[in-house]
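fwd from M.: "can u put these together and see what the complex looks like"

so here's what she sent:
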Amino acid sequence: MARVVGDEVSNKQVIFRDYVTGFPKESDMYLRTGTIKLKVPEGSKAVLVKNLYLSCDPLMQFFMRKVQGPDRYDYYTPGSPVFGYGVGKVLDSGHPDFKAGDLVWGMTGWEEYSLITKSEGLIKIQHTPDDDVPLSYYTGILGMPGMTAYAGFYEVGAPKKGEYVFVSAASGAVGQLIGQFAKLTGCYVVGSAGSKEKVDLLKNELGFDEAFNYKEEHDLNIALKRYFPHGIDVYFEHVGGKMLDAVLLNMRHNGRIAVCGMISQYNLEEHEGIKNLLQIGFKWIHMKGYTHLNYYHLYPKFLDLVLPYIREKKIVYVEDIAEGLESGPAALVGLFTGRNFGKQVVAVARE
Amino acid sequence: MARVVGDEVSNKQVIFRDYVTGFPKESDMYLRTGTIKLKVPEGSKAVLVKNLYLSCDPLMQFFMRKVQGPDRYDYYTPGSPVFGYGVGKVLDSGHPDFKAGDLVWGMTGWEEYSLITKSEGLIKIQHTPDDDVPLSYYTGILGMPGMTAYAGFYEVGAPKKGEYVFVSAASGAVGQLIGQFAKLTGCYVVGSAGSKEKVDLLKNELGFDEAFNYKEEHDLNIALKRYFPHGIDVYFEHVGGKMLDAVLLNMRHNGRIAVCGMISQYNLEEHEGIKNLLQIGFKWIHMKGYTHLNYYHLYPKFLDLVLPYIREKKIVYVEDIAEGLESGPAALVGLFTGRNFGKQVVAVARE
């Protein structure tokens, strides 16, 4: 229970220290306890939430940099809280679509309580007390990464039954869902990941036909030829660099590459050069960058598809939940060394 | 007039010497005079043509290599004639769609007369004696490069009125047509080329809004920022390498890159690495390789669009015609050093 200070309560926060180059370190963030009024200012359309679950997303590293990166987001301000996607409970609302007691997901601060002024970006969660779908899923499979996987799979890559599908970073929040969509569609799907445990997860729990540890392969081209003797129809790109170069050599005619991210490249001062782009012309490859931001209109359709799959256990989802706001910086930093096992979440409070 | 030898006539040919690495040299081909019967073998569906105009296309370098390159073509055989797209007059035909006297375009040999066994690939030219559209145009603007430009512009890049369009190798057979389609559509279009004369052609004859000589630019990124202060919506890619890397930095959100070829890379033992592919994810760029091969069904629609433009002089087309089969090897080799000025054609005979 929050400590009350006059008409304010105490509010633990994860503060962004200063702009970073390369991947963030734990010391780029620090904890501070401030205070907050649990009321929305008069006449404002803001929404005041108690944060329950915070999402750790690769995207957040860009918010910590001064230059470069996708430019349709706000970036962090040194001395202010880190923010990202999260699930919260509405305590007070100036926006007609939300009222106290509602559960919502969207952009929120890394703190116990947040006053969300851009409340139009929030999405109300339909959740009943007896619902067996965990609320934390709305940071992942039912939130931004889920939307990303859905858009990437059905709108961008669009593999058909019988096609050969490859997913990199396949045990991550987006990859694990894409692989399962591929199996539900009747594709042959192979995933790459960075540890034996992740490879086992892909093969034994998530239903991938094959999986391999890219760190154990001397030549990714040879590895891909082993798993795809007939080539790759659709590649879901999350890593970039050498993997992309090897994939290009193994694409089939009219193959598609859905580019969600290139996490292997983000921390490099100079990005690796991709040498096999001639294949795009030779094989009429279709490569497309995408983001969930363009697909929000499909969110209800997405839920209609995925919620039954989750309830029927036709889709499995693996989360790595760090307990407490204090564990946030380490959890976030762990994303970039592959320390997380499944979708990385920070639990701030359970209700 | 061909020398008659028994029931055969003499047939001058350009012979492919042996597989090449890198760009072809004149010495990779030689002239030989053989003989040919001007009759299609009994029961065959072949077509016998007298070749009039032969097309020099960048594509042909791949047919000279043992490995690599697009794989939906036949490759050259050492000791046999070079082949490529051309215009010919039918002398005899075993195929019901063609008869003596017809004019056709399609894959033919670099020789005076060719027996075309894959006659199903030939297209009949609707040409009357008083037609003011030159027959040689069916090697270019009305043939394969024209189809390529049409498909690239209307089906792949699909720029809309007011969009910012960039074309590399803009004075080439495909580029010059794409630029003119862009102007007819109401786009702002800039082209790059490799000499002052070509830049003048683009600006003064072909109606490009701007053009620049890439060889005179120290930093292609800066050059592109000068011509595209608001960025590029659609890039028509014909060169690859450093130009592509600079273009990626200057693309707008949802930009499209139509990949027709990457001529700067074909002769390199090791291809240049492209470092700015992260922009594909950041800006939701859509990059697509294509070829005319997938768009033959649109050929009648393409002619309906382009023939009136040519007759009304709303589209200008520049050819560089080398006279005589003997000039063929030098003309073909000149493509790769940029010696040609407009579409390179070899005139074997005028009728």
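replying to her w this: The interface with chain B takes residues 69-72, 237, 240, 244, 253, 259-262, 265-266, 270-291, 294 of chain A (CB under 8 Å).
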